[in-house]
Amino acid sequence: MAVVKVNKKKHIYWAEINRPEANNSIDFEVMEMLEQTLDDIEKNGRTRVFVLSGAGPQFFASGGNIKAFSTLKTEEEGRQMAERMTAILKRLETGSFWSVACVNGEVYGGGCELLLAFDFSIASKTATFAFSQASFGLPPAWGGLTRLVERVGRSRALEWLGSNQVISSEDALNSGLINKLSITSELTRNTWEWALGLSRVEPDLIQELKSGSKFALDHPREASFERELDQFARFWASPQHHKKVADYLKRKR
Question: pTM here?
């Protein structure tokens, strides 16, 4: 099985790409298993944090599987493949759960595009990153150009996309490509601890924070302020908020 569920507890769903013999590259089987994983998360309604890692010590994800995709020759075939993965990443990006990439090793090409769709990422200090699409005569296929510009700015994005340079974990952190670093031996434990902290937020509030932040990027400030007020008032009147206040006041007494 290409994607294996590792653990599911305390509102956390941890899966991994399990293709170490193929550098955890993404093919149609991986796409199918990612779709099934997201179906499961969306159906159960209990997941607040989804974590994805790569099996083995060397790769998180090495991008699209060249051999598997080499049979796609026409523009339409290439587009259909890219549209399928783009839809998967959009579901990941907009879902009512936090998503965390646990980057255990090297990340190349489409693997970087996968990484960019996650809300957060934590990487081993030995991890490396490379936007290698241009070495195959291609731009990014799965929304990676847009997300990379949003994440690190246009000039740095163009440099990385055009040079195929290997980016160290320190440079990835300093540029904002990733959020946290961990020593390799503590990566799993540190990821679990972070995920547990994130899991304290309920799915409806996660959804609002994610959609609200996207609205803020896409609309004028005044419109974002107005939306923020509307959503605050809605959540203020909710039973969930009233219960949390009552629990807090009870503890204070």
Answer: 0.93
